[in-house]
Amino acid sequence: MINLADVSMVRDSKQILSDINWQVKPGQHWVLMGLNGSGKSSLLNIISGQQWPTSGTVEVLGERFGSTKIPNLRKRIGWVGSVLNAKINQFDTTDRIILSGIFNSIGIYQEYGQSELDQVDEVMNRLNITHLKGRKYLTCSQGQQQLVLIARSLISNPELLILDEPCNGLDIFATEQILDQVADLISQENAPTVLYVTHQASEITPMFDHTLLLKDGLIFDQGETSQVLTTENLSLFYDHSVNVDKHGNRYLVYLDHSKG
Ligand SMILES: Nc1ncnc2c1ncn2[C@@H]1O[C@H](COP(=O)(O)OP(=O)(O)O)[C@@H](O)[C@H]1O
Ligand SMILES: [Mg+2]
Hints:
By secondary structure, the chain is α/β, with parallel strands linked by helices. Helix content is about 30%, strand content about 30%. The longest helix is centred in the C-terminal third of the chain and has 16 residues, at about 170-185. The chain starts with a strand and ends in a 5-residue tail after the last strand. The site of adenosine-5'-diphosphate has 12 residues, from strand 2 and helix 1.
């Protein structure tokens, strides 16, 4: 699905990503963790063709960057993140925002017909947000807005779905609703591969079988989630003593104050 080899990115003489070697295989779903500024969004922007690496090779969905048409590739990738959030017209209705996903645009400038409107209904139904149809985006709660943006990203049945901190600022119930919807989605046939950025270990449900830890633009560790999320590993990763516990199938990470 994704193959990054020796990818680096420099902007304004700042090294943002270095020596990124990362493969995502079909059927895997990854969590990306790392402190603010560690390069998570930059990495995902490279994968979705929105930013260029300074060096290295990038292959996504079987297409090698440099020899493929990026706009065609972008149509196969769904993407939700704060940059999109900031661009949305708050006065647009939810269904028009979702419809715009078909055209990969902010706002609608192309002709559409019944089949596109049916697609909107189908995806709203799939995410249980039919009751939001016709509502202005700004009248929706933050959790509802995120579901609208996820619906927008899903409308063209992407093969890869990038969720960059989709649960930021959401209460635990809204967060669980999003996680439930993603779990539902993953369980379906022809489900997209999901890349999910979070700061909260509690959001790492078993569906995220792999985890990538990014630190200062470098991969600190990657692999099966259960191997990566250990007390020893995360304490080194954060340069602080932390404890990693599991409660049921959920992770719990907390500072170990006894060790200072
Ligand atoms: N175009 C750019 N020019 C200069 N610095 C950038 C640019 N894009 C990102 N950065 C910097 O790169 C670092 C990584 O950013 P980002 O990928 O957004 O991190 P994260 O998503 O992990 O919080 C930050 O220090 C950010 O300020
Ligand atoms: Mg980010």
